[in-house]
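Protocol step 4 of 6.
Sequence for DUF389 domain-containing protein (Prauserella flavalba) entered exactly as in the expression construct, tag removed. Do not edit the line below.
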Amino acid sequence: MLHLRALCPAERTDAVLEALRDCPGVAHVVLLRGAAVSPQGDVVEADIAREAADEVITRLYEQQLDRTGGITLEVLDTALSDAADRAEKEAPGESGDAVVWQELVSLTGEQSRLNVTFQAFLTIACLLAAVGVVTDSPVTIVGAMVVGPEFGPLAAVAVGVVLRRWDLVRRAAVALAVGFPLAMAVTTGATMLGEATGLFSAGNLRGEHEVDFIFEVGPYSLIVALLAGAAGMLAMTSAKSAALVGVFISVTTVPAAGYAAVAAVLGQWSRCLASVGQLAVNLLGIVLAAVLVLAVRVRSKRFAASPRPLPNG
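Step 5 output, structure tokens:
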């Protein structure tokens, strides 16, 4: 279940309570008159079944609480009461299949920000991939896959396209368009330094290696990207975040970026171009699959038609 807290002006409190009473899947409603200080008003709290959350939030949006007050949601690990059990039984659908759209928008919006942390993780992941390439270490490549934060912006693009949240698409596109080139530029500099100091040479890329799968583009590259994008979006929309680790390990976005940088410095242009192609195929495949999954899961046309701009930053 989810715990809801709504700050609302006193004149809207009765309407909010009525909306909560009318929604199936709501339990433990609490009213605190005059408890809100900033903004001033009343505080209404309730526990709601996950599958009822989207309808509840829509009702609160109708009361404009997102503008005149505030709405917060947090996950409840345990709720022990007959009322909570009844609420989950009355709520339509299954909890594991429920999508809380505003939660999804908020999550992907936060993960798609171009900031120092995002750029640092992406750069470190590319550097790890470069080390994996020159040492022919699949384990290091897997480490780079796990560290890479690129799925957040890719998921944000898919969410933005399906829900017509163009502000979200722009933010995510900027993060990817700036993040990858900058991370590859740093990796290129590190590779040049390594070659100049004799740490490795062009011979490291000649012949066959265990990490050659990175630049070998083929039908399976697209198939894996599509499956990974679908699994990743299912994990995000069903709150099964543990599955995301498997998504990170299955795609070769960051490894392809790292390989391209190393190959360019060492003059292996065919492998460099193939790696860039691998990167493009993976990015497009993930977004396409995520869009298809979301398109199937969209249930509320009203939400999709009423975008709320993301905060700046």
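Step 6, annotate. Residues 103-304 form one domain.
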